[in-house]
Write a structure and sequence with these properties.
The protein is mainly α and 199 residues long. It has one domain: Hypothetical protein af1432 (Orthogonal Bundle), CATH 1.10.3210. It contains ten helices and no strands. Helix 6 packs across helix 7.
């Protein structure tokens, strides 16, 4: 193999090792902080959907997306108080610095995390950001996400239904950027909307 080929392969292995190490760190923190359910129910699903979207959208930078997948919810993983997106972006920056990433990479990830809740879709400008936000929303339709929240939430049934409907509407209408991705979860979306609007 020519030396250039070896260099590309070495970069790929180095990148995969860092992503794997970051995933391992987040998993360990989830388990340590009594958030094993969050790792299994949410984060693994975000990873799964991000990979599906990356296959459909090959122009996206895979490393940026996967770093965002494993850093976007560090505020919740670490049980930290404060604004979910701001604190999450700060924690991502600290963690990525420890992993040796440069300021350019860190700023890209912070920008994605700073708007990943989908409150203002116009602020999500990059393809990588749109993939992360879409994968995050799509994950909520799988693995009994809403049932897990229902069991853990300190809300009465009407409050929970209201919260669920708001989340479902935001997920489907503001966070999933790609028509093919909406099509993938439409049946589940419609079923959950029906359940939460039943009288």
């Amino acid at each position: 193999m020519p030396s250039g080929g070896r260099c590309v392969e070495n970069d790929r292995i180095k990148y995969m090792n860092k992503i794997d190490q970051l995933k391992k760190l987040v998993k360990e923190e989830c388990f340590k902080n009594n958030r094993e359910w969050f790792y299994k129910t949410h984060l693994i699903q975000v990873e799964k959907f991000a990979k599906i979207l990356l296959k459909k959208l090959p122009k996206a930078d895979k490393e940026t997306v996967m770093l965002a997948v494993w850093c976007h919810d560090l505020q919740r993983v670490r049980n930290l108080k404060g604004d979910h997106e701001k604190v999450g972006a700060r924690e991502a920056a600290k963690t990525l610095k420890e992993f040796g990433y440069d300021d350019g990479v860190i700023e890209r990830i912070k920008e994605i995390i700073s708007h990943h809740s989908g409150n203002d879709p116009k602020k999500i400008k990059t393809l990588e950001g749109k993939i992360l936000v879409s994968a995050d929303a799509m994950s909520h339709y799988h693995n009994d996400f809403f049932l897990k929240i229902a069991v853990m939430a300190q809300r009465d049934i009407e409050q929970f239904k209201k919260w669920s409907l708001e989340k479902l509407n935001r997920n489907y209408n503001k966070k999933i950027f790609f028509p093919f991705a909406k099509k993938m979860i439409k049946k589940r979306h419609d079923a959950l909307m029906y359940i939460f609007t039943m009288k």
